[in-house]
Specification:
Blueprint lengths: L13 H6 L5 E5 L5 H9 L4 E6 L2 H14 L4 E5 L2 H7 L5 E7 L17 H10 E11 L2 H13 L3 E9 L5 H8 L4 E8 L1
Parallel strand pairs: 1-2, 1-4, 2-3, 4-5
Antiparallel strand pairs: 5-7, 6-7
Length: 190
């Protein structure tokens, strides 16, 4: 049986082609309603923000918000993040945000969870040296699950872990109002 073909990779200059500049790139996985994406893109015009969302409806809503806000440094793509991280150029992303991923509570659905050694390795490969992965969730069990995979990757080092007192998304504000803690970790590529 033949070895599977290596994954197709986009060219190293794909970010420059997409954004028309050489600014650092931040990748958000699962932007939900796009609240963080809009706030971050407004606050940091010298960074290009790229988000991947699995919901086509969500992507259309975010695209409308980006167009209304006139943000030229933010884009959103309708795709599965596990596929996208395999095709983006290696060492081309400064920061990766994974915020409130679906924990897939039911045992039969857990294979759909984002976190796995392969996913973490793919994220690490996307990062420039010194680039960071920020992981947020309001599900403590899932936080420890993801944290274990991040900590186990030898190419990453844990920079910070703790609770986040506030966050600029509707989802986070609801969790905090319910008294549920938001767990946060940051890992940097060695």
């Amino acid at each position: 049986m033949a070895e599977p073909a290596p994954p197709f990779r986009l060219p190293a200059d794909c970010w420059q082609q997409l954004f028309g500049n050489t600014h650092p790139v931040a990748l958000e996985i699962g932007p939900g309603r796009g609240e963080f994406l809009l706030v971050a893109a407004r606050a940091d015009p010298a960074t290009n923000f790229y988000a991947v969302e699995i919901s086509s409806t969500g992507v259309r809503r975010i695209e409308t918000k980006l167009a209304t806000a006139g943000l030229r440094n933010a884009r959103v793509l309708w795709a599965d993040a596990t596929w996208l991280v395999e095709v983006l150029p290696e060492a081309s992303v400064a920061t990766i945000y994974v915020q409130f991923p679906d924990p897939w509570w039911k045992r039969r659905h857990q294979r759909r969870r984002l976190w796995s050694p392969a996913f973490v390795a793919a994220l690490r490969q996307l990062l420039v040296p010194g680039g960071a992965i920020e992981f947020l969730t309001d599900v403590e069990e899932y936080f420890h699950f993801g944290l274990a995979y991040l900590d186990a990757d030898p190419g990453l080092e844990r920079v910070a872990v703790g609770l986040l007192p506030e966050h600029d998304t509707n989802f986070a504000r609801k969790a905090l109002r319910r008294g549920v803690a938001i767990h946060r970790s940051t890992h940097r590529r060695r």
